[in-house]
Amino acid sequence: MFKNYLGKYENELLESVIPFWENHCIDKEFGGYFTSLDRDGSVYDSTKYMWMQWRIVYMFGELYNSEYSRGEWLGIAQYGFDFLRKNGRDKDGRYYFAINRQGKPAIAPYNIYSECFAAMGGAAMYSCTKTELYKEAALDAMNNYIKRIDNPKGQWDKSLPGKQRYQALGHYMMLANLGLTMKDFLGTDEYDHDIESAIEIVLSKFWNESLGVMFENILPDGGFDLDSCDGRMLNPGHVLEAMWFLLKYFDDYSRDEAKIEKVAMIIKKTLEFGWDKTHGGIYYFMDALHKPHLELQWDMKLWWVHCEAILACLYAYKLTGDQEFYDWFEKIHAWTWAHFPDSEYGEWYGYLNRQGEPTHALKGGKWKTFFHLPRCLLYATRLMKQMEK
Amino acid sequence: MFKNYLGKYENELLESVIPFWENHCIDKEFGGYFTSLDRDGSVYDSTKYMWMQWRIVYMFGELYNSEYSRGEWLGIAQYGFDFLRKNGRDKDGRYYFAINRQGKPAIAPYNIYSECFAAMGGAAMYSCTKTELYKEAALDAMNNYIKRIDNPKGQWDKSLPGKQRYQALGHYMMLANLGLTMKDFLGTDEYDHDIESAIEIVLSKFWNESLGVMFENILPDGGFDLDSCDGRMLNPGHVLEAMWFLLKYFDDYSRDEAKIEKVAMIIKKTLEFGWDKTHGGIYYFMDALHKPHLELQWDMKLWWVHCEAILACLYAYKLTGDQEFYDWFEKIHAWTWAHFPDSEYGEWYGYLNRQGEPTHALKGGKWKTFFHLPRCLLYATRLMKQMEK
Fold first, then answer.
1. Looking at the structure, do residues A205 and A264 belong to the same domain, yes or no?
2. Which of A18, A24, B36, B118 lies at a C-alpha separation of 20 to 30 Å from A327?
């Protein structure tokens, strides 16, 4: 069933994506990585964005740990880890949003997702090496994340009392994912309660039954705000990513048929709502009532959304056996592989217009690095192998 | 030469654009304006963004003052002025970035362009009424702008020492424009030196002769930074807008043939560089070396860019008589009028994809209000009448 796909995904991971980053991302002079890589791998900006940096540490660690392991991948992960632990934090231990090529602080630590990816990077390194230093780094970042959750932007928060506050899907999704990563890599049960409560909140509060959509922002008391752009915002890629995190947790640790059924239903509805019936592909942002979207790029097709959609379909198919998910997988696979891969220079384009044509030649940038695509390819091969058995 | 165009521009201003905003933007219940207006004028978000609010005050003031004057326009401008003076400022007199529908502070005063548009709004009101209150409001905002120039983002600035600092074209462009507005509306010569020095810096430092482009950001010492995305950033719409501000100043106050010639050359080069040879229209953002752009929406076609391009061509044609500017005017006019106007509900779409299709149905939003389009139509009719004589 997946035999033809499996070879394609494995080959893309091992022969195209990994070599591209191995060959181009390492800053041999100053440490850390280049992530602003043009179509051919040349560097077009040397700023070191913390999310992008730590995701490379995480991903090479995860790959070293995988069935495809190669010794040099640990070295690449460690090379970034050392640079980032040394240069990445302010005096309070918070990770900057960006440092410059030499490691000097460039953009203030206003974004706590930097901590998330640092925690994931440290945890992956620990699982490769069982060295306490990495575990400490992971827990340190994780605890800083939790400590900052109630005031994530700190002094850089521009919201005043007249601005509606929301609970954000991204926050709960990340909490579930981080807890799961710590569980996988550090073997700790310490965050089980966080995972369980995040799952509960996501499934019961963010899902709107009558509209058939999962919202990005809900009111503090759990209701929906249909009168504002922020309140109506949908992010189908986020939802699909969050849903496979949940399915992975149910699959690996704690099977719950009722919840699996609900997640499967949410994936189907999200794909139906988010799929572009004219040009194919999944929209980046949407408005729940189809009113104008604040984001100019709402109708673009992004690589990561399609990577997460593929994993959501494969997990849902594995856990439910529902043929509809296989059909969705084939449909998304076909559109994705017809539009994103760059057959000449390897790796994938990140940004397509609504019609499916690349608007940017870049392979990496401020928001694209060695993360969603290799993770998708790695996890997809695993799921396919499990389902072939 | 412009006879057929003139009627079209006048009619669009008086029968389509002004009525759309008169009918839909006034918040009769709480004061101020709605600017998030959907295709048919219905309100899809009630946040009151300071730039958008003050621009309406300015524009209705300017129109009341114009050859098309109608009495009710002063009332509309005043209605917003009163609400914004009462609710728009913090205890230090800085204008918030946004307030909510009721007037409660929503987003902190992190952006000093709020002050610019407040200054323009107050000045326009003064020129309508000759009432000191408005002059005070204008000078107050203007002086706050100047006071905050060296640290414009204040506590919300996320830049740290490792981030390259730049001088921004927007800043000098705004200084020239503000000085000119104060001169026009308050009759003051106080800012003549600011205007002259801004013109000097823009023409000598931001223009790169060998690449034939005007940069958005230059190094503090005046050089160009070709190694980073920020350093290579171009904004053709900004350049064209800045250039007609300069031509207007030369035309109204201080004719300087050498500078007019340089500005005309910059307009030509900017149009050649910024025009999309495949689909027509002018790009939103560009990279001076055609490397990947940080902004996902770089290739979109925005209404304001085309409005400013039309004025740049008309001013340049008026001041130089060079046929090339008439030809550019005709070409830009044709593309603009074929793609932006909404013949069914009036007003113009703001955001088109590269191919020229609307991606958003909105007529107003967080960044589109009653400003660029009516100003373009009003000034264009004036320039056309002057040239018909």
1. yes
2. A18
Give CA–CA dist B31/B33, Å, rounded.
Answer: 7
Q: Same structural domain for residues A72 and A6?
A: no
Task: Say which residue the tokens 């998910």 belong to.
Answer: A325
Asked whether residue A100 is domain-assigned, the answer is: yes
For residue range B67-90, list pLDDT tens digits in order: 999 999 999 999 999 999 999 999
As beta bridge partners, residue A217 has: A168
Q: How many domains does chain A have?
A: 2
Give the whole-angstrom CA distance, residue A225 versus residue A213.
13
Question: Is A322 in CB contact (< 8 Å) with chain B?
Answer: no
pLDDT tens for each residue of B199-249: 999 999 999 999 999 999 999 999 999 999 999 999 999 999 999 999 999
CB contact under 8 A, B296 and A47: no
3-state secondary structure B349-372: CCEECCCCCECCCCCCCCCCCCCH
- Is A19 in the same domain as A57? no
Say what the ipTM of the complex is.
Answer: 0.95
Q: Of all helices (H) and strands (E), which one includes residue A339?
A: helix A323-339
Residue A224 in any domain: the answer is: yes
Query: Taking the model in full, what pTM does it have?
Result: 0.97
CATH number of the domain enclosing A308: 1.50.10.10
Residues B360 and B227 both lie in one domain: yes
**Cβ pair A160:B105 closer than 8 A:** yes
Q: Nearest Cβ partner of B155 from A155, A162, A294?
A: A155
Q: Are A137 and A85 in contact (CB under 8 A)?
A: yes
pLDDT in tens, B243-290: 999 999 999 999 999 999 999 999 999 999 999 999 999 999 999 999
Q: How many CA atoms lie within 13 A of B187 on its CB side?
A: 4
What b/e string do you get for B300-338 counting C-beta neighbours within 10 Å, with b at 16 or more? Answer: bbbbbbbbbbbbbbbbbbbbbeeeebbebbeebbebbbe
The three-state secondary structure class of B172 is: helix
Q: Check CB contact under 8 Å for A360 and B156.
A: no
Which residue in B has a C-alpha nearest to residue A353's C-alpha?
B353
Are residues B144 and B228 both part of a single domain?
Answer: no
Domain end position, chosen among B158, B175, B209: B158
**Which domain does B216 fall in, by range?**
1-25+187-389
B174 within some domain:
no
Q: Does residue B172 lie in a domain region? A: no
Q: How far is B224 from chain A (nearest CA, A)?
A: 15
In the structure, how many helices (H) and strands (E) does chain B have? 14, 13
- Conformation bin of residue A347: beta by default, left when phi > 0, alpha when psi is -120 to 50: left
Contacts of residue B163 in chain A, CB cutoff 8 Å?
Answer: 98, 100, 106-107
Q: Are residues B212 and B71 in the same domain?
A: no
Given A103, A138, A158, which residue is the final one in a domain? A158
Interface of B with A in 278-307 (CB under 8 A): 291-294, 296-300
* DSSP 8-state code for residue B166: -
| Residue A51 shares a structural domain with residue A5 | no
> How far is CA A251 from its chain centroid?
19
State whether A255 and A389 are in the same domain.
Answer: yes
d(CA B116, CA B171): 10
Torsion sign, CA atoms A356, A360, A364, A366: negative
